[in-house]
């Protein structure tokens, strides 16, 4: 998740960006009297995807409501620490927070977030055209904890396969939709002196997301219905072996690659295919970054039995200590509305959680990977959202890296992972 838009990160990670958005009158979403005139809200977010674009849409919110808004956009590495400090000190510096799906269970379990259902059910705060049902169900679920809605999603991403249409057509190769087709295509290009596929093989969450998609496409998952770890199932082992087979068709040095490295090799024409993250796919349609901008095609990740995607999302949540909860919810509903979601998509190729926008002609023309993301997320699942999820991720990153480097077989690596996960869940 940290690899999105290096240009934006360069702008913002030099420190905390405090952007006060002001307005100059207008019609309130509540009424012309602007009952929230003079209210000031501060929200916390990562200075990553669409931060610049968001700064452009916030003045309209102030114009409509009279609410002044400060955006505190800081580097991802410092974001959670600063949010938790605000929660635990009860200073309520933040009214609203942008939260990835992996942090939300901890925040909700700790009692730091305000449930949103009472506000979303209030017609004075949520107009009928807000349409809560328009959110993709799998994505909306990431804003819930134990069945309670704590956050509304505004940004989603998933690993996708990017391929060179011109190269496959010239070689009369099939579109790499399935495991078999993708591997055969990659092997063909490797045998003909070109990198077959670029993979995010560095020991990180990037590779774990890809392996999880492969595993689930083969019918596996992290746990069975009884909560027992099943990463070493036949599906898990087959997925990791497939990962290893694909990796052998890539260029030398890919064991140290992350999403950005995959993109760089695709943009420069070094590989015929690559597995990257949808959040930085806008680079592929930018002629200033590649001469192949019209040659790329996009698919959900190759599947064995069924399409599957690893879902990552960012959602807007409310600090339980906020002194202006209704105003805070108005900001959340504004940032997640169809209108603003489409504006952000047009400004910065942001992929929203709104199902209707995946087929919006204006957005699809600018973001031709949207159908691939939609396909992946129809059967999309997150990484495990449980208190021990960070440990599980670390275990899987380590074990996948041992297979990638050739130090362990897929079966041995996942047998060890299963034992380590079982032990971690007990501690």
Automatic annotation (TrEMBL):
InterPro entries: Bact_solute-bd_prot1, SBP
PROSITE patterns to which the protein is assigned, alphabetical: PROKAR_LIPOPROTEIN (PS51257)
Pfam family, one: SBP_bac_1
Coiled coil spans: none
Gene3D superfamilies assigned to the protein according to its UniProt record, in alphabetical order: Periplasmic binding protein-like II (3.40.190.10)
Superkingdom: Bacteria
Protein name (database record): Sugar ABC transporter substrate-binding protein
Species name: Reticulibacter mediterranei
Lineage: Bacteria, Bacillati, Chloroflexota, Ktedonobacteria, Ktedonobacterales
